[in-house]
Each structure stands twice: as structure tokens, then as C-alpha cells.
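Hi Y.,

Following your request, here is the sequence exactly as I used it, all 282 residues.
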Amino acid sequence: MSGDGLPPLREVIAAHELRAKKSLGQNFLLDLNLTRRIARAAGALEDHEIVEVGPGPGGLTRALLMEGAKRVIAIERDRRCIDALQEIEKAYPGRLTIVEGDALEVDMASLVSGPARIVANLPYNVATVLLVGWLQSEPWPPWFESLTLMFQKEVAERIIAAPGAKSYGRLAVLAGWRTQAEKLFDVDRAAFTPPPKVTSSIVHLVPRNEPLAPANPKTLEKVVAAAFNQRRKMIRASLKSLGVDAGALITEAGLDPQERAERLTIEEFCALARTFDAMKGT
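Below is the corresponding structure, written out as C-alpha cells. Let me know if you'd prefer a different format.
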């Protein structure tokens, strides 16, 4: 047993013949000491509902429940894992809700009824898409109080990067605009079954009450994506793909057309987004 009356995860995986699928971005965490550390990184859980994406055989799910989560809502698209999760559901009556479906299509806000946090060992193949979706939630502040997520270390570095840093780009702007993000700790590849080719990292993001500067989320993402698509070029060249007079856009936003995207602050990107909307009449 593993401290919660349930079999060790290796036995669960063997019993249900759960081999991680590369096509689903699966890498299972089996060490309950590690998953409980991740759960604790999300803060006090007792009065919160936790949304977990991609629970797999339930290693992090069990940790969240052991650490006192009021209720865990586990969203899993792999039908093979449902039976294993139902065993956890029986061990924690009323505290685990299993949602079989694709997290990219599930309306997560409708699943919670009180203070909520998102905690997940995200499948690598959809991690960035999910994060961007959460960062673009409307209205803002969002329905979740925090995000405690696992990414590939390289992605984590891109999320927390500051202007001028090598990793600074679209994710850093979008994350920094609406949240305060920090990397908490790395997770060695050997902790997973099967081991991925890269180190992973836990990132904690707390929504700001107000974004750093006004901007339409979709417009901001569009402007930032254009700017970093050719990050080595001056913004007067990289922003031409937006379909407006790039020189006028930059001048109206009060920026230097010879500047490069990697040196612009989040507030300056917001200025570009507001000016772009004004030029397009939106």
C-alpha cells in the first residue's frame, strides 16, 4: 500500500495494462512523494476544487486528495485510464469527479462551484495550447485562483523569461501580462515512466487582478506572434505580416521602428495591440 490504502502505482499500471502513449503525450509519474510535493506547491487545498488535466493512472490525483483537496475534477481522454481512476474515486467518496473527454474541448469553468485551482502534469503535446487558452480566459480575473503546471523545462523557461533574455517570446509576454509566473523546481526525466528525453519543470502562475496594461487578448497574441516570427529582424520588418502600415503602427504606438521584439516590454506590446485595433477600427 502507498499511504492512502491503494496499491502502488506500478501495480495499478500493470493491473490495467497502462502503457503510456506517445501520441497522447503521456509520461506517468509514479513517485507519490514527488506528486505530493507538486500538490503542496499549489498551496493550501482544503477549501478548493482542483481541476487536473491528464491524470493518467492517478498519481497526482491521489497526491492532491492526500494533501486535502476538497474535490478533484480529473479530465482524462484516454479511456484505458478510467477504470484506474474509478478505483481512486471509490477510495475517496464524493471527492473525485472523473470527466472523460478532451481538455481542449471541455468547459472547465462550468465544472467548478467554488474557489478553484488548476494543477496538472500536462501532456506535452497540448501543454502550450492549454496554457494560452487559460491566459486568454474571459472575464478576467478568471475562474481559477492559480495554475500549478508541469512543462518541459525549455517551455518553462520561455514562460518566465524577461525582456532581453534568450527565451523571451510569445509565452513570456502572454503569461507576464496577466499573471505572475515563477518556476518552482525541476523534475528529473528518471522520475517518469517512460522517461522523456528532457527535464521537466513545475511552474506556478497567479492571475493578476488587472493585466499590466490594457489590450485585447487575441490582438495581443497576434501582434506578439508576428513580432517574434522573425525575432532577429527589426519590428518594422517583422510587423509587416499584420497587414497594416508597420511604420505607422510603430510610430503611433510610440516605439522605435529599429527595436527588436526581444527587447520590447509587455507594456510596449500592449501599446502595439491597442494601436493595431485602432487602425483596424475594432
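The chain has a mean pLDDT of 93.

Thanks again,
Q.
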